[in-house]
TrEMBL record:
Domain FecR protein: 128-213
Classification of source organism: Bacteria, Pseudomonadati, Bacteroidota, Bacteroidia, Bacteroidales
Pfam families membership: FecR (PF04773), FecR_C (PF16344)
The keyword Signal belongs to this UniProt entry's keyword annotation: no
Domain Protein FecR C-terminal: 256-324
Protein name as annotated: Anti-sigma factor
Transmembrane in keyword set: yes
Source species, domain of life: Bacteria
Gene Ontology MF: a single term: sigma factor antagonist activity
Signal peptide: none
InterPro entries xref list: FecR, FecR_C, Ferrdict_sens_TM
Keywords: Membrane, Transmembrane, Transmembrane helix
Gene3D superfamilies hit by this protein: 2.60.120.1440, 3.55.50.30
Length: 326
């Protein structure tokens, strides 16, 4: 009897945690506690499967899922976010609890809905520059504000969806090419190092450091094979693809290596990689050659300092730009 009362109290406690999670009022500690609740993946999964027969509005379910998912992911760094990867079934079940409780009022439908195949995704949002290792040991050097997403069957399909900017070091796997999806295009590789920058406002840039990749534009179905030290600039709204060569840049464990690069090419590369509005004074020779390393997460001030120290130059900050001068 006492044991049943204890189990009932535990069940009621987690019911309250689930309701707070749905309402977006959970504290980080409560989400952490819910993530370690072993019963979630069994009991809640059954509720989810049962409830799908009364849910007729997929858009409503999607909106609730996005709300819960964003509430759970925002406050956490890497460790907690990876734990949420195993909480996906519980989160889906949380949606179902809401639909079951409110179904007779808001979402009730007398006719059964054909069941759908649900695919779970892991989403990583980088608040700072960081390295993330995918299940196949491929490495993603993520810039701050970037977001990657991959499905639970990643090892079979090796597909990643990217928003923002990241550099990929892809491991080779026989018969399993690697794809990175961006807005209206995707990059397909076997094993290589390349950088992708994708934004809705400015389109995408793909820079290849080693190996070969195929760039695929969806609308025109154009397929372009890229070679090392080439860059593609893609404007999806015009379906425009520009292929150009870049200077001698290589990638080494999170660092860019510049070898005998002309100063004008260096400044262009620095602008592309670090988004620094920097210009050369007219007295600085464009033909001088620069050789050196820079980390992918170096701040703008450090990048400029390295260039100036190496080349015996100076810099000054103006309103919206940095000028390098003698």
């Amino acid at each position: 009897m006492e044991r049943n009362i204890k189990n009932m109290k535990i069940s009621n406690k987690y019911d309250r945690l689930v309701r707070k999670l749905i309402a977006g009022k959970s504290s980080p500690g409560e989400v952490e506690e819910l993530a370690h609740w072993d019963v979630v993946e069994t009991k809640m999964k059954k509720q989810f499967d049962a409830a799908r027969n009364i849910v007729d509005d997929a858009a409503v379910e999607s909106r609730i899922w996005n709300k819960i998912d964003s509430k759970c992911q925002t406050p956490f760094e890497r460790k907690q976010r990876l734990q949420l990867r195993y909480l996906k079934i519980a989160l889906a079940a949380c949606i179902t609890v809401l639909l079951v409780v409110g179904g007779s009022i808001f979402f009730f439908n007398e006719e059964p809905v054909t069941s759908q195949h649900i695919i779970e995704y892991t989403e990583i949002v980088s608040s700072n520059s960081r390295l993330y290792v995918l299940p196949d040991s491929s490495r993603v050097w993520m810039q701050a504000g970037s977001r990657i997403r991959f499905s639970q069957d990643f090892m079979d399909k090796r597909e990643v969806w990217l928003e923002g900017e990241s550099t990929f070091e892809v491991t080779k796997r026989k018969g399993r090419n690697f794809k990175v999806y961006i807005d209206q295009a995707f990059v397909e590789v076997k094993g290589t190092v390349f950088r992708v920058q994708s934004t809705r406002q400015y389109g995408a840039e793909v820079t290849l450091f080693s190996g070969k990749v195929d760039f695929n534009a969806k609308a025109s179905q154009r397929k372009i094979e890229m070679k090392p030290l080439q860059q593609i600039i893609f404007h999806p709204e015009k379906d425009e693809v520009i292929l150009k060569n870049i200077g001698n840049i290589s990638w080494d464990e999170g660092r860019y290596k510049f070898v005998d690069m002309r100063m004008d090419d260096l400044i262009e590369a620095i602008h592309d990689i670090y988004h620094i509005p920097v210009e050369l004074d007219e007295k600085v020779s464009r033909n001088d050659l620069f050789t050196g390393y820079m980390r992918y997460d170096d701040p703008a001030s450090k990048v400029i300092e390295k260039i100036c120290i190496n080349m015996n130059l100076k810099f000054r900050k103006e309103t919206q730009r940095i000028i390098i001068y003698k």
